[in-house]
Design brief:
Bound molecules: manganese (II) ion
CATH superfamily of the largest domain: Metallo-dependent phosphatases
Number of helices: 9
Radius of gyration: 26 Å
Helix content: 25-40%
Oligomer: single chain
CATH architecture of the largest domain: 4-Layer Sandwich
Strand content: 25-35%
Number of strands: 18
Structural class: alpha/beta
Shape: elongated
Order of helices and strands: EHEHEEEEEEHEHEEEEEEHEHEEHHH
């Protein structure tokens, strides 16, 4: 059994200033050495062509330190012109940058790179395409449109960038074993379509708050006899990651929610994590009292995170609960219902309290 390994990432958006981008690049290449893998960058290696010009010498130096590692890169919408012929990024660097597609080779695996083209689509670049043989990896930088896959489209729309649509039928025509995509930033997403493994690795370092969760790159192995692909996510030890959590609060059980908050702060404490916690639901406690308690947590935990935000988005129903026995009875009954998940219970209480408030002043 012969296996060939690659490390797949995309959307590094390298830019000056700072050491972080170069640290990321060094780490990536170290991983390639460790896994005896070739590097695949599925677009937007640089944040812009200007940044590419600024960073070129430094990137070339880092690449040249691992002259034996093959590096396959396609341009994305941010760095379309950064890999024009003649630009030297050192040995074993392959820019698959000639539209409609360019081929690269590593051991027995063929890499078909579809460079980003403005106002185009993957379909438009398949006219002259004939499957170049197997096993095959396809690389493209664009937006996958598929049933139940609205997240990719939403992410690109939020950033207001071009789509470069990719449909599953286009990928079927390409017939790859692995499809290395880029352009979707938010998080890692991989799925199987027919015989293909399709993967967006997400940005390796969070560039914006909407990119949540731990950042990873993908190590994939291709079995050159069967075409079978295995993927593994490698956590990136550089940069900050954004974690968002919600805590549901149930009126008169605030202490329980605060215990969960404390547990969360302990579990998540990490100098590289930017944590946002939202408290939703209903409270009986005075709002000021809850805010004071949250301020204490912030004070205690703030320096254990890259950034810590704790938001009180609860609604107080103190007087309603205190003045109306019927409301307390309703709450007790709701609390007594077994096998009701916490979010549903909190939501039911919220709706119930809102309704009680509306009829306030009417017959008791
Ligand atoms: Mn992009």
């Amino acid at each position: 059994m012969a296996e060939v390994t690659f490390i797949h990432t995309a959307d590094l958006h390298l830019r000056e200033p700072g050491e972080e981008p170069l640290q990321l690049l060094r780490w990536l290449l170290d991983k390639c050495v460790e896994h005896n893998a070739a590097l695949l960058v599925a677009g937007d290696f640089f944040d812009s062509e200007e940044e590419a010009a600024r960073l070129r010498e430094k990137v070339k130096d880092i690449f040249s330190q691992v002259p034996d590692i093959p590096k396959f890169v396609i341009p994305g919408n941010h760095d379309t012109g950064a890999f024009r012929e003649g630009i030297d990024y050192g040995p074993e660097f392959y820019a698959l940058n000639s539209p409609p597609f360019s081929l690269g080779y590593h051991e027995d695996v063929v890499i078909a790179g579809f460079p980003f083209v403005t106002n185009s689509s993957l379909r438009a670049q398949l006219d002259e395409y004939r499957a170049p043989g197997k096993p095959l990896i396809a690389m493209a930088h664009g937006t996958y449109f598929g049933r139940g896959q609205a997240a990719f489209f939403e992410d690109v729309r939020e950033r207001g960038e071009e789509y470069f649509p990719i449909y599953s039928c286009d990928l079927e025509d390409i017939g790859a074993d692995y499809v290395a995509l880029g352009h979707y930033h938010s998080q890692h997403a991989s799925f199987v379509h027919g015989e293909m493994v399709i993967c967006y690795p997400g940005t390796p370092v969070a560039l914006a708050g909407r990119e949540t969760g731990i950042r990873t790159v993908v190590a994939l192995t291709v079995d050159t006899e069967t075409g079978e692909v295995d993927i593994e996510r490698l956590p990136v030890p550089v940069g900050v990651c954004n974690i968002r959590e919600n805590i549901q609060v149930f009126a008169a059980e605030e202490e329980e929610a605060l215990t969960r908050l404390e547990q969360l702060l302990q579990d998540r404490q990490d100098g590289r994590v930017s944590l946002t916690v939202r408290l939703n639901g209903t409270i009986h406690m005075l709002e000021r009292e809850l805010n004071d308690r949250l301020a204490e947590f912030r004070e205690e935990y703030a320096d254990r995170f890259a950034k810590l935000i704790v938001r009180n988005e609860t609604v107080s129903y103190r007087s309603l609960v205190d003045e109306r026995p019927l409301v307390r009875d309703f709450m007790a009954r709701l609390a007594a219902i077994e096998d009701l998940d916490e979010e549903t219970r909190a939501r039911a209480l919220e709706l119930g309290l809102r309704a009680f408030e509306k009829v306030k002043g009417h017959a008791r």
